[in-house]
Design brief:
Blueprint (H helix, E strand, L loop, with lengths): L1 E3 L10 E2 L5 E2 L1 H10 L9 E5 L3 E6 L8 E4 L3 H4 L12 H21 L3
Parallel strand pairs: 1-4
Antiparallel strand pairs: 2-3, 4-5, 5-6
Length: about 110
């Protein structure tokens, strides 16, 4: 699951949600994930603000995320390879889940 924010948004600080709550992007994605059936929860959550990626391994929910800066992507791209490995059944399922979650959120917010 990927939660994309605007350039300059701090990925570790709360951002006001439509319900008035303040959630960092990771917690926002966790909220979306919690609306899915357990069997469809994502393996990873990635937050990004167009300059930084934070990668959360949901198998290790209490660990610090991996951090990759966009400026380092030419040498660090392999760390995001799991996002594009469509031959992997688990990754394909996670991509489908992320799309389904986006559609669900769109319906909940009335934008679709």
């Amino acid at each position: 699951m990927i939660e994309q924010k605007s350039l300059g948004k701090d990925l570790r600080k709360g951002i006001k949600q439509s319900d008035g709550s303040m959630l960092p992007p990771y917690q926002q994605a966790v909220r979306y994930s919690s609306m899915l059936p357990y069997s469809k929860h994502p393996r990873s959550i990635v937050t990004c603000n167009f300059s930084e990626f934070l990668i959360y391994d949901m198998e290790k929910p209490n660990c610090e995320p991996e951090q990759i800066f966009l400026k380092d992507l030419p040498t660090e791209y392999y760390r995001l390879q799991f996002l594009v490995d469509t031959g992997n059944d688990s990754i394909r399922r996670e991509m489908e889940i992320s799309l389904q979650a986006g559609e669900l959120v769109g319906k909940l917010s009335g934008t679709t």
